[in-house]
Amino acid sequence: NIFFENKPEQNKKISLLTKKYEITTGFIFSYPFILNKIFIKKFKFGLINCHPAIISDIKGSHSAFWTIFKEREIGCSIHFLNSKIDSGAIIDTHIIKLKGLILADEVFSQSRKALKYLLKKNLKKIWQGRVEKYQNKSSKIYFKKDINKEVNLKMNRSIKIKKLFNILRATHINDNGIFFLEKGKKYKLISNLKEIFK
Question: How many Å apart are CA 157 and CA 15, to the nearest integer?
């Protein structure tokens, strides 16, 4: 529980543990904030981030949405952390081949399962400190506000069927959906695509 009391760089218990046990490597799973450089440098080998998408194609949050919306390969990556979002050197990536109608909830689930495989595959190399580092090319970083621009549609504007279908697939998770704006009012559309395309 000590890891969730506050930001890691402000957490004295984490600092004491890393110093006491001479911890040189750390792992990040679904941490939504940017860690500062001073904290990152405490880990001599590095902090390793587990990212549920293929880097450098999809960086930032809501990777399941952007993987589908941008029609990228489904997968996951592990990479070293730096002070920029999802931009450190890549250790390894894994592409998942899924057939049929691929929806965001399945991308979300499968990419996280694949991260377990990717970690197992690379853990010995990480332990021995002999991982290869691959270039993480500069690319767009996605934020929640970017999703809002895509899913808030105006009733009096046209949209390509393919784009609409991709948005429906990409928002098919939890209670998400498409929003239609008309005369200052917002209407939400949620559809069960699995039932529609049986």
Answer: 54
190 SS3 class: coil
Nearest-angstrom CA–CA distance, 61 and 74: 15
CA distance 137 to 61: 18
In order of 35, 157, 165, 170, the CA distances from 160 in angstroms are 40, 10, 9, 15
Q: What is the pLDDT of residues 24-67, one digit of tens each?
A: 999 988 787 788 888 888 899 999 999 999 998 999 999 999 99
Contact 86, 55 (CB under 8 A): yes
Distance CA 110, CA 157 (A): 35
Q: Is the whole-model pTM more than 0.85?
A: yes
